[in-house]
Design brief:
The chain is of the alpha+beta class. The protein is built from 10 helices and 11 strands. It has 2 domains: 9-101, Phosphorylase Kinase, domain 1 (2-Layer Sandwich); 108-291, Transferase(Phosphotransferase) domain 1 (Transferase(Phosphotransferase), domain 1), CATH 1.10.510. The chain has helices spanning 2-20, 61-77, 108-115, 120-139, 189-192, 199-216, 226-234, 248-257, 268-273, 288-291; strands at 23-31, 35-42, 47-55, 86-92, 95-101, 142-143, 152-154, 160-162, 169-170, 176-177, 197-198. This is Protein kinase domain-containing protein.
Length: 293
């Protein structure tokens, strides 16, 4: 009983402090291992924002000393239209509040669960936005290392917004790492096998998984058995659902991104130059289902 009373007072202290800074805290819109993301209203910005709240007390030492400083450093230096914008970082007692742009249409996974596979013309528009964001990040030597559908948010026009820099880090050439991070379902086979890997390739493989999910509304590999998944990856077993027609160009691009041989795997420049990315098509009309989530 006493614990719950103390907890309530602690929460109200936080909210009183944030209120003085011009933030009204709303509902929880996301939750991770050591953090919650809440909706909030900023008096200063006169709009809704997302507030990631990290509790240092409950976070392990490795997270506090390595991953959190990296996340904050990366977010401070990033400014791109297809990446969630950072407004402010507030530290109060044992908590860190990261105030960010609010993406009103949820995440890409929710979008696909609601609508099913995305038509290729629309996929191309959204995937180009992700590609632009990654060209920008890698250009300033930042690797995201946790790209997945849940970390691609959508604004009110359904534009992609890359979010969650919890595993992001700066890299210097030759940019080799042995650290496994992110989700196994989106990780390249060399990472899952514990082989030292070129850090930017972590993001490129994940982009291939994301594109496959966008086009097919399913996973390319069954991640319920990681050992079997690695075998399937190494045997190049990428198959496509018979119920969903996928263009030859899209399949070709996916085969090149989900290439096991790291020397032959597509780079961001290769992806940008691929014929599927450069189909001349009229701008996508915003239909009722896309425009009103």
């Amino acid at each position: 009983m006493t614990g719950s009373v103390v907890k309530e007072f602690a929460t109200s202290d936080d909210e009183v402090y944030l209120k003085k800074l011009g933030y009204s805290i709303g509902t929880t819109i996301g939750e991770g291992s050591y953090a919650k993301v809440k909706s909030a209203y900023s008096d200063k910005l006169q709009k809704r924002v997302a507030m990631k709240i990290i509790n240092r007390r409950s976070a392990p030492k490795d997270f506090k000393e390595k991953f959190l400083p990296r996340e904050l450093k990366c977010m401070k230096s990033v400014n791109h239209q297809y990446i969630i914008k950072l407004f402010e970082i507030i530290e109060f007692e044992q908590k860190v509040y990261i105030v960010m742009e609010h993406a009103g249409h949820g995440d890409l996974l929710e979008y696909i669960k609601l609508r099913g596979s995305i038509p290729e013309d629309r996929c191309r528009v959204m995937f180009k936005q992700l590609l632009e964001a990654m060209i920008y990040l890698h250009g300033i030597n930042i690797a995201h290392r946790d790209l997945k559908c849940e970390n691609l948010l959508l604004d009110y026009q359904n534009n992609i917004k890359v979010s969650d820099f919890g595993f992001a880090r700066y890299f210097e050439e030759p940019g080799i790492s042995k650290t496994f991070c992110g989700s196994a379902a989106y990780a390249a086979p060399e990472i899952l096998q514990g082989i030292p890997y070129y850090i930017p390739l972590h993001d490129i493989w994940a982009m291939g998984i994301i594109l496959y999910i966008m086009i097919c509304a399913s996973m390319p590999y069954d991640d319920s058995n990681v050992k079997k998944m690695i075998r399937d990856q190494l045997e190049k077993k990428v198959s496509f659902p018979k119920s969903k027609p996928v263009s030859r160009e899209a399949k070709d691009l996916l085969y090149h991104i989900l290439e096991v041989n790291v020397k032959r795997r597509y780079t961001l420049a290769n992806i940008a130059a691929h014929p599927w990315m450069n189909v001349d098509s009229l701008p996508m009309p915003e239909d009722e289902t896309l425009g009103n989530v």
